[in-house]
Amino acid sequence: MLIRGVSRAVGDIFYQRCFYLFLMLIAFIAVVSFIEPTRLGRIAIAGANAFLVVATVASVGRTTLSFVLALVLAVPALVYQWIALQSGDPHALVMSRWFAVALYATTIGYLMRYVFRREVMTADKLFGAASMYMLIGIFWAFLYALVENYHPGSFTLGGQPTKPGFFDLVYFSFTVLTSTGFGDLAPLGRQARGICTVEQIVGALFVAILIARLAGVYPPGTRKD
């Protein structure tokens, strides 16, 4: 009963859940990238990520099961992130990213189920589709960060091996997802190239399937003579 009450309270606050998630994603991608990687900057980034995680849990928590699942993944992600921020422990940072990967994968799955249900397409569903597209980019950025952690030197900058920061990987992920080209940052390792190829396929299929879904909402009318 307590969990159900908390889930309902969060739902009341985030009535247009996908709209708030969409706003948080835009802010996280566009604003946080301007923060310098100092200690104060890392605290600000951690705070912005916490707000994004809260919006993610709210968008997923439409049932008790989904709310509990999102909460179980979100809390360790934030705790490990805070430990890594305070102690600089690389293991805690890796664990935080693994839980973030699981959380965003779960969110993408639930949003996909919500957006593509055979019901009337609402404004909240459209924001859900946009949020899902951006979450795919962030999800793959975490995957690239994990690949770089386990296989150093997986990326090149200007043809030279480099160790990219997380927001460099966010930038790289969205260039792959939107098929705008690699530009200055490119995959070098076999593992990075593999998941890069999968992201390109997912990005193309997502747009095609979403257009088909929107076209199916409005069936063609009969032509009158």
Compile the SSE list and pairings.
Elements: H1 2-13, H2 17-30, H3 39-60, H4 64-87, H5 90-115, H6 123-150, E1 155-157, E2 160-162, H7 166-177, E3 185-187, H8 190-217
Antiparallel strand pairs: 1-2, 1-3
Helix pairs in contact: 2-3, 2-6, 3-4, 3-5, 4-5, 5-6, 6-7, 6-8
Mean pLDDT score? 82
Biggest sheet character: 3 strands, antiparallel
Overall shape: it is globular
**Structural class designation:** mainly alpha
Number of distinct helices: 8
The topology string of helices and strands comes to HHHHHHEEHEH
**Cα distance, first to last residue?**
60 Å
Total E-strand runs: 3
What is the strand content? under 5%
Q: State Rg.
A: 19 Å
Task: Give the strand order, joined by hyphens, for the main sheet.
Answer: 2-1-3
- Quaternary organisation: single chain
Low-pLDDT segments = none
Helix content: over 70%
